[in-house]
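Weekly structure sync, notes
Attendees: PL (lead), two postdocs, one rotation student
Agenda item 3: pending single-chain targets
PL asked that the sequence for the first pending target be pasted directly into the notes so everyone works from the same version. It is reproduced below exactly as submitted, 285 residues in total.
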Amino acid sequence: MIKKIMKSNERHPPAFTLIELLVVIAIIAILAAMLLPALSKAKARARGAQCLSNSKQLQLCWTMYADDNRDAIVPNLINSPNSWVDGSWSDGSVANDLPGATTNYFVRIGLLFKYNASVQIYTCPDQQQVYVMTYTKVMPFPPARSYSISGQMNGGMDDGNNSIAPVVLGSNPGSATAYKKTSQINRPGPAKAFVFVDESLYTIDDGFFAVRVNEDLWDNFPASRHGDSGSFSFADGHSELKHWKVPSTKTLSDPWGNTAAPKVGGQRNPDLQWISERYIDPPAP
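Predicted structure, written out during the meeting:
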């Protein structure tokens, strides 16, 4: 009997009331809402760093090719798959159609692959979709390639004689044709002339990236990923992330629509101008 009385007098540990639980849940929700944007930005920075690393590794492959070939820049052909023994730098004429957009076979037969046998460095970690030209829509397939090379870097058409015929787009200055050797890079110089660019899934095709510097026109679109930015590598070996300033640059999407770069405050689009100066500088008429 005494044991029963003692047991009944034992005090139970205090419990949370319903209101207290709701307050705790509300506090947790507020903290999560505050932390999630920071976590999202941290993830974007991490993916941006990986994209930057990829462009640096591709740039090293590009440099090693020139070292092995008497300073010659790797061929960068327009719409000419397999015109060289195993393609251009990467046989990419099917990069916006199936199955080529999703198979790394065309990366593996490219002229740069032997310098780094990793297919992962050819894709930006933030690109998880491809634009399929046949169906004119975006599809949820992982891409085989996200990067292209400046058309100024030995870009052009196959002339049928194992050489490349340079292409001058629109009113781009004819005095600034594509470089054949790295020692020719002077407009701008190696520290400012971009080589690899993270390209938009809507225009990536043959691995050739160009802009019309005297017309304020995009010929190809840069990618806008990991915090509204895109990665670029340069002929001197360094790489950098470019953060886009103009909203229209961040949302370029229709390869068949208007490619004009809208002026900002009555001035040239600063994003397109930034790329233009690193494609052909100065953009003389």
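Discussion points:
- The first strand starts at residue 76 and ends at 77.
- Residues 82-87 have pLDDT under 50 and may be disordered.
Action: rotation student to compare against the earlier draft before next sync.
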